[in-house]
Write a structure and sequence with these properties.
Shape: globular
Number of helices: 10
Strand order of the largest sheet: 5-3-2-1-4-6-8-7
Number of strands: 8
Strand content: 5-15%
Structural class: alpha/beta
Length: 288
């Protein structure tokens, strides 16, 4: 690989979903020296406000604020995120290329079909990416999908519509592709070690929260980089909060989840696995 593997990859349906649900966590990880990345499944062409081109510029600005090392958007239709074989292959290819140790997915329930479908799609792609006998490139070619797309390409992949390379360094050099495999044009199988779910879009008790007290302002700035979405305008007036209310709403949610763990601001997550504890005296968060 020309760049080290990612330590954390957040996957979401739309540009600005990650900023709303786990932007503070990604910023915190980047500040600790980890390579954090974002994969947006769609370009946002069906959004009530703005355009796909505008959202791309805003996403790049937000990535810089969050110190994101890598960001891409796929060509899956906005408003029609479907858990198809083709779409799973597209995500699996990214997973094999970037080789993240941790993947953050949306929670598997929610109001927007794109959000909960992205969750299932992402999980199944993580499984596919680890199958040793699956040739992702050949399977995609058989689907006659990406090769017939006329969307501008970056990095040689027709299904990629935007790339941001940024900050950080990797603590997982061992996950890099083997030179022989790269020379043969093959992507080695890779399955993330950990999958966690960002739950802010759904009312469910989280398994854990991440303290983002020091990252709250940066998270807010990354969201406000989407000027087309969060400025006062007639389009979507009944759906979007007024610009003057955005900070108070975001702060209220972050304070609520922070209160659960005894910190000022936090972001909520859920894991399916049972947690492992080595030392009972070192478990954080006071009980009484």
């Amino acid at each position: 690989m020309s760049t080290p593997p990612l330590d954390i990859l957040a996957l979401a349906a739309h540009r600005d979903d990650v900023e709303q649900t786990c932007g503070g966590t990604l910023l915190k990880m980047a500040q600790r020296g980890y390579r954090a990345g974002i994969l947006d499944l769609t370009q946002g062409e069906m959004g009530t406000r703005g355009s796909a081109e505008g959202r791309a510029r805003e996403a790049a600005d937000a990535a810089k604020i969050l110190c994101i090392s890598w960001r891409q958007a796929l060509d899956i239709p906005d408003g029609r995120v479907e858990n198809t074989w083709e779409n799973r292959l597209k995500v699996a290819r990214v997973l094999r290329e970037q080789r993240p140790r941790v993947v953050i997915l949306p929670y598997w329930k929610g109001r927007h079909p794109d959000h909960y479908t992205a969750s299932i799609l992402g999980y199944e792609a993580c499984f596919l990416a680890g199958l040793a006998k699956l040739d992702v490139e050949q399977a995609l070619s058989t689907q006659h999908s990406a090769l017939s797309n006329t969307t501008p390409t970056y990095g040689g992949h027709p299904n990629v519509v935007a790339t941001v390379e940024g900050h950080g360094f990797s603590r997982a050099e061992s996950r890099s592709q083997e030179p022989a495999a790269l020379a043969a044009g093959r992507l080695l199988p890779h399955r993330p070690f950990k999958i966690v779910y960002a739950t802010l879009y759904y009312d469910v008790r989280p398994t854990f929260v991440v303290d983002i007290t020091e990252q709250f302002e940066g998270r807010l700035q990354s969201l406000m980089a989407y000027k087309s979405q969060f400025s006062d305008q007639e389009a979507g007036k009944g759906i979007f909060p007024a610009h003057g209310e955005i900070r108070s709403r975001i702060e209220a949610m972050a304070r609520f989840y922070g209160m659960l763990a005894g910190v000022t601001y936090a972001e909520p997550f859920l894991q399916k696995e049972v947690g492992l504890v080595d030392d009972l005296t070192a478990i954080p968060v006071k009980s009484i």
